[in-house]
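Handout, page 2. Input:
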Amino acid sequence: MATLGMVGLGRMGGGMTHRLRARDVEVVAYDRDPQLTEVTDLAELVQRIAAPRLVWVMVPAGGATEETLEALADLLEPGDLVVDGGNANWRTTVEHAATFADRGIGFADVGVSGGVWGRDAGYGLMVGGDGPSVERLQPVLDALRPAEGGWSHAGPVGSGHFAKMIHNGIEYGMMQALGEGVELLEAGGPDGVDIPAV
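Output:
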C-alpha cells in the first residue's frame, strides 16, 4: 500500500495516525502545531509521498478545512486522491469534489466516529465517493475500523458527511433523552431512588 499523508494530528487525527501505523500503514503526518508535526508544511508532506498520492485531511470543518483543501489543490497532481474526514457540510463537500475533479484529482469524504477511543477500539467510517476511490481507500479503512464491520460505502461524494450528520443527530437526540430521563428520576418518584444504579 502507498504511503498516506495525514493532515491534522489532533485528538482524532493523532489517534488515527497511531492506529494506522500499528497496522503497518506508512504515514507522513502534518499539523500546524510545530510540536506535533513531522514535516514543515503541506508542500513537504506532498513531496514525501510518491504519486499517485493519498492525503487524508482531519482538521475542523470551516476555515481550517477550506485553507487546507485550497493549498492541497495547488500542490497535488492528477491521479492523486484527497479524503476529507472532518465534519463538513455535505453540500460543501460536493463543491470541493468538483473543484478537485477539474484538476484531475479524486475526492472522497469520510464521516469518522469513535472519538479518542477509536485509537484502540477502531472507528466507524461512513464513506462517500466513487467506486475506484473507495477501492483505493479500502486498506486504510480496514486498518481504521474495528475487528468486525465498522465502515460502509454510503454513496457518492457527500454521502459520508451526510450520513455522519444524521449519525450525530441521532447520538445527540439519545443523549438528550438520557438527560431528560435522569432529570425525571431526580425530580419525581419515591425518595431514595438509586439513580446511578438505574
